[in-house]
Amino acid sequence: MNNKTLALVLGTGLLLSACSEGTTTNDGGSAVQETAVDEQDVPRSSSESSEPAAEKPAAEEPAAEEPESDPDVAPEDEPAEEAGTVAWGKTYTSPTKRKIVSGVPQPWTPNEYAITEGGWKKYVKVTLTLVNDANEPFDSSELTAAGTSGDRATEPVFDDSVGTPDRTVLPGRKLSFDLAFGYEPGAPLTVELSTFDGPIVTFDGVVR
User: Fold this and answer.
1) Above 50 in pLDDT, residue 8?
2) CATH of 90-207, one of 3.40.50.300, 3.30.450.40, 2.60.40.1240, 3.10.129.10
3) Residue 48 has pLDDT above 50, yes or no
4) Which residues are 145's β-sheet partners?
5) Which of 2, 36, 96, 179 holds its CA 20 to 30 A away from the CA of 171?
6) Average pLDDT estimate for 5-19
7) 87 CB contacts (<8 Å, ≥6 apart)?
8) pLDDT band with cut points at 50, 70 and 90 for residue 58
9) Mind giving me the DSSP string for the chain?
10) pLDDT per residue over 112-145, tens digit each?
11) Model confidence, pTM
12) Where are the domains of the chain?
């Protein structure tokens, strides 16, 4: 066998060996089998995922605790109620359930022993009744009176029959007493009753 024939035989064998590695088709040819890759089988990265990531619920803030009251700190005092003003002959009831009943001023003449101020020519006397409907006794000596008649100040007259008594009025009891003042006829007579804590009531009205 010459060299050309040997080269032809070797080339044909190599060609047949290469063809045998492929897939034989119906027409006797060969084809290389390709593996199809389904896109659904390929895992996607988190950035390519179409579903949004579930949001974490926001943490609830703890409720604010109310400051505890300090038992050693006394509460602020409530503002006192303003004193009332009533007409002569009317009744005033205080927030403490004590009542002061006023009579109508009547003409009065002081005796020679009476203590008077202001040089008034005319005087009146009025009866007041203190009714204690509170739960505590009341000391009537705490009461003070100050008046005006027209544009002048007038002070209470003191003698053995008029003036503020020094008595303790028990709960459920009452006490009557007379006050006298100099006045200007036809002018308003205004009398303010007070205690150590401040004004209680003001009686007001024109006296003829």
Assistant:
1) no
2) 2.60.40.1240
3) no
4) 193
5) 179
6) 45
7) 203, 204, 205
8) low
9) --HHHHHHHHHHHHHHHHHHTSEE-TTS-EEPPPPP--GGGSPPPGGG-SSPPPPPPPPPPPPPPPPPP-TTSPPPPPPPPPPEEEETT-EEE-TTSEEEEE---EEE---TT-B--S--SEEEEEEEEEEE-SSS-EEGGG-EEEEEETTEEEPBPBSSSSS----EE-TT-EEEEEEEEEE-TTEEEEEEEEETTEEEEEEEEEE-
10) 999 999 999 999 999 999 999 999 999 999 999 9
11) 0.60
12) 90-207
Residue at token pair 């100050």: 146
The tokens for 197 are: 């804590």
- So what's the pLDDT on residue 45? 47
